[in-house]
Design a protein that fits this description.
The protein has about 375 residues and is mostly helical. Helices cover about 65% and strands about 5% of the residues. It contains 13 helices and 2 strands; from the N terminus they run αααααααααααααββ. It has a two-stranded antiparallel sheet with strand order 1-2. A hairpin with a 2-residue loop joins strand 1 and strand 2.
Length: about 375
Protein backbone atom coordinates (compact mmCIF):
# COMPACT_ATOMS: atom_id res chain seq x y z
CA UNK A 1 0.00 0.00 0.00
CA UNK A 2 2.85 2.40 0.82
CA UNK A 3 4.36 1.91 -2.61
CA UNK A 4 1.00 2.60 -4.29
CA UNK A 5 0.83 5.84 -2.32
CA UNK A 6 4.36 6.67 -3.48
CA UNK A 7 3.34 6.07 -7.09
CA UNK A 8 0.32 8.34 -6.58
CA UNK A 9 2.66 11.01 -5.21
CA UNK A 10 4.95 10.76 -8.25
CA UNK A 11 1.99 11.12 -10.64
CA UNK A 12 0.59 14.08 -8.67
CA UNK A 13 4.02 15.73 -8.52
CA UNK A 14 4.66 15.61 -12.26
CA UNK A 15 1.05 16.66 -13.03
CA UNK A 16 1.50 19.73 -10.84
CA UNK A 17 4.87 20.60 -12.36
CA UNK A 18 3.34 20.23 -15.83
CA UNK A 19 0.58 22.68 -14.84
CA UNK A 20 3.15 25.20 -13.59
CA UNK A 21 5.27 24.93 -16.73
CA UNK A 22 2.26 25.10 -19.05
CA UNK A 23 0.94 28.21 -17.29
CA UNK A 24 4.14 30.16 -16.65
CA UNK A 25 6.70 28.95 -19.18
CA UNK A 26 5.27 27.53 -22.41
CA UNK A 27 3.71 30.25 -24.64
CA UNK A 28 1.11 28.03 -26.30
CA UNK A 29 -2.09 29.92 -25.50
CA UNK A 30 -3.78 27.08 -23.61
CA UNK A 31 -5.01 27.28 -20.01
CA UNK A 32 -3.85 24.40 -17.80
CA UNK A 33 -6.49 22.41 -15.95
CA UNK A 34 -5.65 23.63 -12.44
CA UNK A 35 -5.73 27.41 -13.24
CA UNK A 36 -8.85 26.90 -15.37
CA UNK A 37 -10.67 25.14 -12.52
CA UNK A 38 -9.60 27.85 -10.09
CA UNK A 39 -10.80 30.56 -12.50
CA UNK A 40 -14.23 28.90 -12.77
CA UNK A 41 -14.46 28.64 -8.97
CA UNK A 42 -13.42 32.26 -8.39
CA UNK A 43 -15.78 33.50 -11.11
CA UNK A 44 -18.66 31.66 -9.42
CA UNK A 45 -17.89 33.37 -6.11
CA UNK A 46 -17.49 36.84 -7.61
CA UNK A 47 -20.61 36.50 -9.73
CA UNK A 48 -22.67 35.79 -6.63
CA UNK A 49 -20.99 38.57 -4.66
CA UNK A 50 -21.77 40.99 -7.49
CA UNK A 51 -25.48 40.27 -7.08
CA UNK A 52 -25.33 42.28 -3.85
CA UNK A 53 -24.04 45.43 -5.59
CA UNK A 54 -26.36 48.20 -6.80
CA UNK A 55 -24.39 49.80 -9.63
CA UNK A 56 -21.87 48.85 -12.27
CA UNK A 57 -19.24 51.07 -10.64
CA UNK A 58 -19.47 49.17 -7.33
CA UNK A 59 -19.46 45.88 -9.26
CA UNK A 60 -16.30 46.91 -11.08
CA UNK A 61 -14.66 47.89 -7.77
CA UNK A 62 -15.46 44.44 -6.39
CA UNK A 63 -14.14 42.65 -9.47
CA UNK A 64 -10.91 44.66 -9.48
CA UNK A 65 -9.43 42.15 -7.02
CA UNK A 66 -10.48 39.06 -8.99
CA UNK A 67 -7.30 38.67 -11.04
CA UNK A 68 -5.09 39.08 -7.95
CA UNK A 69 -7.09 36.42 -6.10
CA UNK A 70 -6.71 34.10 -9.11
CA UNK A 71 -2.92 34.55 -9.15
CA UNK A 72 -2.64 33.98 -5.40
CA UNK A 73 -4.83 30.86 -5.44
CA UNK A 74 -2.91 29.41 -8.40
CA UNK A 75 0.30 29.65 -6.38
CA UNK A 76 -1.36 28.34 -3.21
CA UNK A 77 -2.92 25.32 -4.93
CA UNK A 78 0.34 24.45 -6.69
CA UNK A 79 2.20 24.54 -3.37
CA UNK A 80 -0.48 22.43 -1.65
CA UNK A 81 -0.45 19.85 -4.45
CA UNK A 82 3.35 19.68 -4.32
CA UNK A 83 3.24 19.35 -0.54
CA UNK A 84 0.89 16.36 -0.69
CA UNK A 85 2.65 14.73 -3.63
CA UNK A 86 6.02 14.94 -1.87
CA UNK A 87 4.43 13.70 1.37
CA UNK A 88 3.08 10.66 -0.50
CA UNK A 89 6.56 10.06 -1.93
CA UNK A 90 8.16 10.24 1.55
CA UNK A 91 5.54 8.05 3.22
CA UNK A 92 7.42 4.69 2.84
CA UNK A 93 10.37 6.05 4.85
CA UNK A 94 8.24 7.59 7.63
CA UNK A 95 6.40 6.20 10.62
CA UNK A 96 3.30 8.31 9.97
CA UNK A 97 1.78 10.50 7.30
CA UNK A 98 2.08 13.47 9.66
CA UNK A 99 5.85 13.08 9.70
CA UNK A 100 5.82 12.92 5.87
CA UNK A 101 3.93 16.23 5.61
CA UNK A 102 6.27 17.85 8.15
CA UNK A 103 9.40 16.82 6.27
CA UNK A 104 7.96 17.63 2.85
CA UNK A 105 6.89 21.10 4.03
CA UNK A 106 10.28 21.82 5.59
CA UNK A 107 12.05 20.84 2.37
CA UNK A 108 9.58 22.52 -0.02
CA UNK A 109 9.80 25.84 1.83
CA UNK A 110 13.60 25.39 2.13
CA UNK A 111 13.42 25.49 5.93
CA UNK A 112 15.39 22.26 6.28
CA UNK A 113 14.67 21.56 9.96
CA UNK A 114 13.54 17.96 9.30
CA UNK A 115 15.26 15.25 7.26
CA UNK A 116 15.41 11.47 7.14
CA UNK A 117 18.87 9.93 6.52
CA UNK A 118 17.85 7.43 3.86
CA UNK A 119 18.73 7.60 0.15
CA UNK A 120 15.11 7.84 -1.06
CA UNK A 121 14.10 10.47 1.52
CA UNK A 122 17.21 12.52 0.69
CA UNK A 123 16.34 12.47 -3.03
CA UNK A 124 12.77 13.60 -2.29
CA UNK A 125 14.03 16.35 0.06
CA UNK A 126 16.34 17.71 -2.64
CA UNK A 127 13.48 17.52 -5.17
CA UNK A 128 11.20 19.41 -2.79
CA UNK A 129 13.72 22.18 -2.19
CA UNK A 130 14.36 22.53 -5.92
CA UNK A 131 10.62 22.63 -6.68
CA UNK A 132 9.95 25.32 -4.09
CA UNK A 133 12.72 27.56 -5.42
CA UNK A 134 11.63 27.10 -9.04
CA UNK A 135 7.98 27.97 -8.38
CA UNK A 136 8.87 31.09 -6.39
CA UNK A 137 11.38 32.20 -9.05
CA UNK A 138 8.87 31.64 -11.88
CA UNK A 139 6.15 33.52 -10.01
CA UNK A 140 8.52 36.44 -9.33
CA UNK A 141 9.38 36.70 -13.04
CA UNK A 142 5.73 36.09 -14.05
CA UNK A 143 4.27 39.13 -12.27
CA UNK A 144 6.51 41.80 -13.91
CA UNK A 145 5.82 40.22 -17.31
CA UNK A 146 2.04 40.37 -17.03
CA UNK A 147 2.05 43.88 -15.54
CA UNK A 148 4.32 45.13 -18.30
CA UNK A 149 1.83 43.76 -20.85
CA UNK A 150 -1.02 45.32 -18.84
CA UNK A 151 0.65 48.74 -18.90
CA UNK A 152 1.19 48.57 -22.69
CA UNK A 153 -2.45 47.68 -23.14
CA UNK A 154 -3.81 50.42 -20.90
CA UNK A 155 -1.76 53.24 -22.46
CA UNK A 156 -3.61 52.98 -25.79
CA UNK A 157 -6.97 52.61 -24.00
CA UNK A 158 -6.38 55.83 -22.06
CA UNK A 159 -5.41 57.67 -25.24
CA UNK A 160 -8.55 56.41 -26.99
CA UNK A 161 -10.75 57.59 -24.12
CA UNK A 162 -9.21 61.06 -24.35
CA UNK A 163 -10.13 61.15 -28.06
CA UNK A 164 -13.57 59.55 -27.94
CA UNK A 165 -14.92 59.77 -24.40
CA UNK A 166 -15.81 57.00 -21.96
CA UNK A 167 -16.96 54.32 -22.46
CA UNK A 168 -15.76 54.41 -26.08
CA UNK A 169 -18.21 53.86 -28.94
CA UNK A 170 -17.41 53.25 -32.62
CA UNK A 171 -19.65 55.94 -34.16
CA UNK A 172 -18.26 58.52 -31.73
CA UNK A 173 -14.73 57.84 -32.97
CA UNK A 174 -15.81 58.58 -36.54
CA UNK A 175 -17.81 61.62 -35.42
CA UNK A 176 -14.72 63.02 -33.74
CA UNK A 177 -12.88 62.96 -37.07
CA UNK A 178 -15.02 65.95 -38.02
CA UNK A 179 -14.97 67.81 -34.70
CA UNK A 180 -11.54 67.33 -33.16
CA UNK A 181 -9.39 64.61 -34.69
CA UNK A 182 -7.60 65.47 -37.93
CA UNK A 183 -7.09 62.98 -40.77
CA UNK A 184 -3.49 62.06 -39.99
CA UNK A 185 -4.50 61.35 -36.38
CA UNK A 186 -7.17 58.92 -37.62
CA UNK A 187 -4.61 57.02 -39.67
CA UNK A 188 -2.32 56.95 -36.65
CA UNK A 189 -5.08 55.57 -34.44
CA UNK A 190 -5.78 52.67 -36.82
CA UNK A 191 -2.07 51.91 -37.24
CA UNK A 192 -1.54 51.92 -33.48
CA UNK A 193 -4.53 49.71 -32.83
CA UNK A 194 -3.42 47.22 -35.46
CA UNK A 195 -0.14 46.86 -33.52
CA UNK A 196 -2.04 46.91 -30.21
CA UNK A 197 -4.26 44.03 -31.34
CA UNK A 198 -1.24 41.96 -32.38
CA UNK A 199 0.41 42.58 -28.99
CA UNK A 200 -2.77 41.69 -27.07
CA UNK A 201 -3.30 38.54 -29.14
CA UNK A 202 0.18 37.30 -28.19
CA UNK A 203 0.33 38.43 -24.55
CA UNK A 204 -3.25 37.68 -23.48
CA UNK A 205 -3.29 34.20 -25.03
CA UNK A 206 0.06 33.37 -23.41
CA UNK A 207 -1.01 34.78 -20.03
CA UNK A 208 -4.84 34.49 -19.89
CA UNK A 209 -5.01 36.15 -16.47
CA UNK A 210 -4.52 39.44 -18.36
CA UNK A 211 -8.08 39.07 -19.66
CA UNK A 212 -9.35 39.65 -16.11
CA UNK A 213 -7.03 42.53 -15.20
CA UNK A 214 -9.34 45.57 -15.23
CA UNK A 215 -8.61 49.14 -16.22
CA UNK A 216 -8.14 51.71 -13.41
CA UNK A 217 -11.13 53.64 -14.79
CA UNK A 218 -14.34 51.63 -14.23
CA UNK A 219 -15.77 52.93 -17.51
CA UNK A 220 -12.80 51.78 -19.58
CA UNK A 221 -12.21 48.24 -20.79
CA UNK A 222 -9.81 46.66 -23.26
CA UNK A 223 -12.57 44.67 -25.00
CA UNK A 224 -14.90 47.69 -25.27
CA UNK A 225 -12.07 49.83 -26.64
CA UNK A 226 -11.18 47.20 -29.24
CA UNK A 227 -14.84 46.86 -30.19
CA UNK A 228 -15.03 50.65 -30.60
CA UNK A 229 -12.10 50.69 -33.05
CA UNK A 230 -13.44 47.70 -35.01
CA UNK A 231 -16.93 49.19 -35.25
CA UNK A 232 -15.57 52.54 -36.40
CA UNK A 233 -13.51 50.82 -39.10
CA UNK A 234 -16.49 48.72 -40.20
CA UNK A 235 -18.69 51.84 -40.34
CA UNK A 236 -16.07 53.74 -42.33
CA UNK A 237 -15.80 50.94 -44.91
CA UNK A 238 -19.58 50.51 -45.08
CA UNK A 239 -20.62 54.16 -45.34
CA UNK A 240 -17.71 55.70 -47.27
CA UNK A 241 -15.73 52.90 -48.95
CA UNK A 242 -13.91 55.15 -51.42
CA UNK A 243 -12.63 57.45 -48.66
CA UNK A 244 -11.77 54.78 -46.08
CA UNK A 245 -7.97 54.47 -45.77
CA UNK A 246 -6.22 51.13 -46.07
CA UNK A 247 -5.42 51.31 -42.35
CA UNK A 248 -9.09 50.67 -41.52
CA UNK A 249 -8.99 47.27 -43.25
CA UNK A 250 -5.68 46.34 -41.64
CA UNK A 251 -6.88 47.31 -38.15
CA UNK A 252 -10.16 45.49 -38.69
CA UNK A 253 -8.46 42.32 -39.89
CA UNK A 254 -5.92 42.26 -37.06
CA UNK A 255 -8.64 43.11 -34.55
CA UNK A 256 -10.87 40.15 -35.28
CA UNK A 257 -7.86 37.84 -35.62
CA UNK A 258 -6.88 38.98 -32.13
CA UNK A 259 -10.34 38.12 -30.82
CA UNK A 260 -10.25 34.71 -32.49
CA UNK A 261 -6.88 33.94 -30.92
CA UNK A 262 -8.25 34.86 -27.49
CA UNK A 263 -11.41 32.87 -28.13
CA UNK A 264 -9.37 29.73 -28.86
CA UNK A 265 -7.29 30.14 -25.71
CA UNK A 266 -10.42 30.80 -23.60
CA UNK A 267 -12.53 28.01 -25.06
CA UNK A 268 -15.08 30.34 -26.68
CA UNK A 269 -16.67 28.86 -29.78
CA UNK A 270 -17.05 30.85 -32.98
CA UNK A 271 -17.64 30.45 -36.70
CA UNK A 272 -14.23 30.69 -38.40
CA UNK A 273 -15.75 31.37 -41.82
CA UNK A 274 -19.07 33.23 -41.41
CA UNK A 275 -21.11 34.40 -44.39
CA UNK A 276 -21.62 38.15 -44.84
CA UNK A 277 -25.37 37.54 -44.90
CA UNK A 278 -25.46 35.76 -41.52
CA UNK A 279 -27.50 37.61 -38.86
CA UNK A 280 -25.86 39.69 -36.13
CA UNK A 281 -27.19 40.67 -32.72
CA UNK A 282 -26.92 44.42 -33.25
CA UNK A 283 -30.25 45.73 -34.52
CA UNK A 284 -30.80 48.03 -37.48
CA UNK A 285 -32.28 50.68 -35.16
CA UNK A 286 -29.07 50.66 -33.09
CA UNK A 287 -27.08 50.93 -36.30
CA UNK A 288 -29.15 53.95 -37.35
CA UNK A 289 -28.44 55.62 -33.99
CA UNK A 290 -24.75 55.44 -34.84
CA UNK A 291 -25.30 56.62 -38.42
CA UNK A 292 -27.34 59.59 -37.18
CA UNK A 293 -24.53 60.56 -34.81
CA UNK A 294 -22.01 60.44 -37.66
CA UNK A 295 -24.27 62.32 -40.06
CA UNK A 296 -24.96 65.05 -37.47
CA UNK A 297 -21.34 66.24 -37.69
CA UNK A 298 -21.14 66.21 -41.47
CA UNK A 299 -19.29 62.95 -41.98
CA UNK A 300 -19.32 62.14 -45.73
CA UNK A 301 -21.72 59.26 -46.38
CA UNK A 302 -21.67 57.68 -49.83
CA UNK A 303 -24.10 54.81 -49.35
CA UNK A 304 -27.72 54.76 -48.34
CA UNK A 305 -28.03 53.44 -44.74
CA UNK A 306 -29.99 50.39 -45.93
CA UNK A 307 -27.22 49.50 -48.38
CA UNK A 308 -24.48 50.30 -45.84
CA UNK A 309 -26.20 48.06 -43.27
CA UNK A 310 -25.62 44.99 -45.43
CA UNK A 311 -21.91 45.76 -45.70
CA UNK A 312 -21.62 46.61 -42.00
CA UNK A 313 -23.18 43.27 -41.08
CA UNK A 314 -20.69 41.54 -43.35
CA UNK A 315 -17.82 43.07 -41.40
CA UNK A 316 -19.28 42.77 -37.91
CA UNK A 317 -20.17 39.09 -38.24
CA UNK A 318 -16.43 38.37 -38.04
CA UNK A 319 -16.04 39.62 -34.48
CA UNK A 320 -19.38 40.42 -32.84
CA UNK A 321 -20.14 37.08 -31.16
CA UNK A 322 -16.62 36.75 -29.71
CA UNK A 323 -16.57 40.36 -28.48
CA UNK A 324 -19.99 39.98 -26.84
CA UNK A 325 -19.03 36.70 -25.17
CA UNK A 326 -15.70 38.12 -23.98
CA UNK A 327 -17.40 41.26 -22.61
CA UNK A 328 -19.90 39.05 -20.78
CA UNK A 329 -17.15 36.76 -19.45
CA UNK A 330 -15.11 39.59 -17.88
CA UNK A 331 -18.18 41.71 -17.02
CA UNK A 332 -16.94 44.70 -19.02
CA UNK A 333 -18.59 48.11 -18.80
CA UNK A 334 -22.04 47.88 -20.49
CA UNK A 335 -21.29 50.31 -23.30
CA UNK A 336 -23.33 50.88 -26.44
CA UNK A 337 -23.12 48.13 -29.06
CA UNK A 338 -21.39 45.72 -26.63
CA UNK A 339 -24.09 43.13 -25.97
CA UNK A 340 -25.70 41.80 -22.76
CA UNK A 341 -24.05 40.97 -19.43
CA UNK A 342 -24.55 38.13 -16.97
CA UNK A 343 -26.09 40.59 -14.52
CA UNK A 344 -28.62 43.18 -15.64
CA UNK A 345 -26.92 46.49 -16.41
CA UNK A 346 -28.22 49.69 -17.94
CA UNK A 347 -26.43 50.57 -21.17
CA UNK A 348 -24.04 53.45 -20.56
CA UNK A 349 -23.83 56.08 -23.28
CA UNK A 350 -20.49 57.67 -24.11
CA UNK A 351 -19.67 60.73 -22.01
CA UNK A 352 -18.30 63.09 -24.63
CA UNK A 353 -15.40 65.46 -24.14
CA UNK A 354 -16.50 68.78 -22.59
CA UNK A 355 -15.05 72.01 -24.00
CA UNK A 356 -14.97 74.75 -21.35
CA UNK A 357 -13.97 78.33 -22.22
CA UNK A 358 -13.96 81.66 -20.35
CA UNK A 359 -17.10 82.60 -22.28
CA UNK A 360 -18.78 79.25 -21.61
CA UNK A 361 -17.77 78.07 -18.14
CA UNK A 362 -20.34 75.27 -18.09
CA UNK A 363 -18.89 73.90 -21.32
CA UNK A 364 -20.52 71.75 -23.93
CA UNK A 365 -19.66 68.54 -25.68
CA UNK A 366 -18.15 68.80 -29.14
CA UNK A 367 -21.00 69.32 -31.59
CA UNK A 368 -21.08 70.15 -35.32
CA UNK A 369 -21.64 73.86 -34.77
CA UNK A 370 -18.13 74.18 -33.34
CA UNK A 371 -15.01 75.05 -35.26
CA UNK A 372 -13.44 71.72 -36.39
CA UNK A 373 -9.99 73.08 -35.51
CA UNK A 374 -10.99 73.91 -31.95
CA UNK A 375 -9.94 71.41 -29.24
Amino acid sequence: MKYLITLLGIVLYFSTIASVVKTLVIPRGHIARIPKTIDIFIEFIYKNLCKTTHSYKSRDALRSSQAAVNIFLDLLVWVIFLLFSLSFMLFPSQQSFGNSIREAGASLLTLGFVSTPTPWATIVDFLAGFSGLVIVALQISYLPTIYAAFNRRETKITLLSSHVGSPPWGPELLARTRIGIVDNQVLGIYREWEEWAADVAESHSTYPILLRLRSPDPYSSWIISLLCVLDSAALYLSLSPSQAPLETRLALRMGFECLRTLARSSGIGYDSDPKPTDPIQLSFSEFMTGVDRIASVGFPIERDPQEAWKHFKGWRINYESIAYEMAKMIDAVPAQWSGPRLLTSSELKTQRVINRTPDDTEGSSFEPKQDPNQH
